[in-house]
């Protein structure tokens, strides 16, 4: 049995991306399509997205303060539904903020997205398409299952997927009416969250099933140190929680065919990777790196543990290591990285910004990718690292713990190791992991064996899309 799914999110690659959420939302229609599921993605028509000249499939005169319509668009085979509501989405800045400050009407903007989703789920589109399942992603879509539940009985089932519990969609209690939420539901077992509204909690409470993007993060979410206040809500619904690991697009992330890199290579032509390394060293102005060349491609935020890299850096440099960083985010972290690049010329290179093609060149040219996250629901870059034989050095948390097999004695013996994990997430443990990395790097045969094992590891969507399909089926029977 298969059916139709409305996926609802604030970003979807390649139309708009600020992080891994967009990659996953963009990949699911194709991955689920292979399982026979017909998925459409509803997302806002931000200013940067060119509106298609198509006929509207849904319209309203008043979506939280202005007219709105839904326009269909096919991108890379995926069916996108653009929510065109100029009063909410046609404005300067990014999807969530402008000049570093959140758009002040974010609660209304994403309530509008969620409202439209719930209406489409309940009544269908004008072309006759009506989903069997409403699949909401993160706080921006959290009210979609809630509106569906509060609107009265329906055969449509709902799923709330947590990509990152740190973002909870908080709005003042006084906005309850303005957000079209029932006052009777403002209590601790429903919408109320420490005196305010949380749109994520609304979704978690009302959805028929909850998923998150790795099995380990699913377990972690029930602990105070990871649940960020939601641990009780999640534990109370533990029987409906599923950890389904993300995949990556193995066509886009394929070192044998990647058009962005200096020289394609594969597990049997690993020597060619050296040309990519040389090109990357030159691009970042690096020289004298006798040990492993580590890369970082990341949002620069506290979550990602960038400060730990800075703390571990001097020892790594002494051991011959080099570092190339691509990222953007917290100005303090950007400045600290710039200081490190100035302190270690020829050994540390930095590119502040967002650059997809450069990211590809870095995975092709690096020896190792560092992901020392304090928490990581899934993480995608460690999987790119596996694909490119760029060994992941990761904190043993969330999806990082689920995707990297650490090079301990047993795993090396069994030939199953694919990288290095460390625990706890602190500078000492990272330093020790980097020392181990340099040790393995000094043994070329062992290093190459690890690279080949990493490149063999399955990181595509096959297993995960089957798990989503099974969950969808379970909900509909
Ligand atoms: P998160 O979603 O928490 O940022 P993920 O690892 O799931 O972490 O996804 C991040 C995605 O964004 C990856 O595809 C990564 O390559 C990409 N990315 C992050 N920063 C940059 C950057 N500065 N330039 C290019 N791509 C980036
Ligand atoms: C979030 C998480 C990241 C995950 C991504 C896609 O941004 O921080 O770990 O990979 O969502 O699910």
Q: SSE layout and pairings?
A:
Elements: E1 4-8, H1 20-33, E2 38-44, E3 58-60, E4 68-75, E5 78-84, H2 86-89, E6 97-98, E7 101-102, H3 106-123, E8 133-137, H4 143-150, E9 157-162, E10 170-171, E11 192-193, E12 196-198, H5 199-206, E13 209-212, H6 215-220, H7 224-227, H8 231-236, E14 241-243, H9 273-283, E15 293-300, H10 306-318, E16 322-329, H11 331-343, E17 348-352, H12 356-365, E18 368-371, H13 381-387, E19 391-395, H14 398-403, H15 409-414, E20 420-422, H16 427-441, H17 444-456, H18 462-476
Parallel strand pairs: 1-2, 1-8, 2-5, 8-9, 9-13, 13-14, 15-16, 15-18, 16-17, 18-19, 19-20
Antiparallel strand pairs: 3-4, 4-5, 6-7, 10-12, 11-12
The structure holds adenosine-5'-diphosphate and alpha-D-glucopyranose (GLC).
Alpha-D-glucopyranose (GLC) is lined by residues 19-21, 24, 163-164, 213, 246, 376-380, 399.
Written overview of the protein:
- With 477 residues, this protein is of the alpha/beta class.
- It folds into two domains: 4-247 and 461-476, Rossmann fold; 267-456, 3-Layer(aba) Sandwich (Rossmann fold), CATH 3.40.50.
- The protein is built from 18 helices and 20 strands.
- The chain has helices at residues 20-33, 86-89, 106-123, 143-150, 199-206, 215-220, 224-227, 231-236, 273-283, 306-318, 331-343, 356-365, 381-387, 398-403, 409-414, 427-441, 444-456, 462-476; strands spanning 4-8, 38-44, 58-60, 68-75, 78-84, 97-98, 101-102, 133-137, 157-162, 170-171, 192-193, 196-198, 209-212, 241-243, 293-300, 322-329, 348-352, 368-371, 391-395, 420-422.
- A nine-stranded mixed sheet has the order 3-4-5-2-1-8-9-13-14, sandwiched between helices. The protein has a six-stranded parallel sheet with strand order 17-16-15-18-19-20, sandwiched between helices. It has a three-stranded antiparallel sheet with strand order 10-12-11.
- Helix 9 (273-283) packs across helix 12.
- The termini are close together.
- The mean pLDDT is 97.
- The chain binds adenosine-5'-diphosphate and alpha-D-glucopyranose.
- Adenosine-5'-diphosphate binds at residues 19-21, 23, 297-299, 326-328, 354-356, 359, 378-381.
């Amino acid at each position: 049995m298969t059916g139709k799914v409305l996926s609802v999110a604030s970003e979807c690659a390649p139309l708009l991306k600020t992080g891994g959420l967009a990659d996953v939302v963009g990949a699911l229609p194709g991955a689920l399509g292979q399982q026979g599921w017909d998925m459409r993605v509803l997302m806002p028509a931000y200013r940067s997205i060119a509106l298609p000249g198509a006929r509207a499939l849904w319209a309203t005169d008043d979506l939280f303060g202005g007219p709105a319509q839904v326009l269909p668009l096919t991108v890379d085979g995926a069916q996108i539904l653009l929510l065109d509501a100029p009063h909410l989405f046609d404005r300067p800045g990014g999807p969530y903020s402008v000049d570093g400050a959140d758009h002040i009407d974010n609660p209304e903007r994403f309530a509008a997205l969620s409202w439209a989703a719930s209406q489409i789920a309940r009544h269908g589109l004008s072309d006759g398409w009506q989903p069997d399942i409403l699949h909401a992603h993160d706080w921006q879509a959290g009210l979609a299952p809630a509106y569906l539940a509060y609107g009265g009985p329906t055969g449509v089932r709902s799923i709330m997927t947590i990509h990152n519990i740190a973002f909870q969609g908080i709005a003042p209690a006084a906005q309850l009416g303005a957000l079209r939420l029932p006052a009777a539901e403002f209590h601790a077992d429903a919408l109320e969250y420490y005196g305010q509204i949380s749109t994520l909690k609304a979704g978690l409470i009302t959805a028929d099933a909850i998923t998150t993007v790795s099995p380990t993060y699913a377990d972690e979410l029930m602990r105070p140190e990871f649940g960020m206040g939601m641990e009780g809500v999640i534990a109370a619904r533990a029987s409906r929680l599923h950890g389904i690991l993300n995949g990556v697009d193995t066509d886009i992330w394929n070192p044998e065919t990647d058009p962005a890199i200096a020289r394609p290579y594969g597990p049997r032509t690993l020597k060619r990777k050296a040309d990519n390394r040389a090109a990357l060293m030159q691009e970042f102005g690096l020289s004298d790196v006798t040990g492993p060349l580590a890369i970082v491609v990341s949002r620069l935020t506290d979550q990602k543990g960038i400060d730990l890299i800075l703390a571990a850096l001097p020892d790594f440099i002494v051991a011959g290591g080099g570092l190339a960083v691509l990222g953007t985010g917290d100005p303090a972290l950007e400045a600290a990285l710039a200081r490190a690049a100035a302190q270690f010329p020829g050994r540390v290179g930095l590119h502040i910004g967002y650059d997809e093609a450069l990211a590809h060149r870095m995975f092709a040219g690096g020896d190792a990718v560092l992901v020392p996250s304090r928490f990581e629901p899934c993480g995608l870059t460690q999987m790119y690292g596996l694909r490119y034989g760029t060994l992941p050095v990761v904190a043993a948390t969330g999806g990082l713990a689920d995707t990297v097999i650490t090079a301990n004695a047993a795993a090396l013996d069994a030939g199953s190791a694919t990288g290095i994990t460390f625990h706890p997430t602190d500078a000492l443990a990272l330093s020790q992991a980097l020392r181990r990395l340099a040790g393995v790097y000094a043994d070329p045969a062992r290093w190459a064996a690890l690279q080949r094992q990493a490149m063999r590891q399955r990181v595509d969507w096959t297993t995960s899309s089957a798990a989503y399909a099974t969950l969808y089926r379970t909900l509909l029977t």
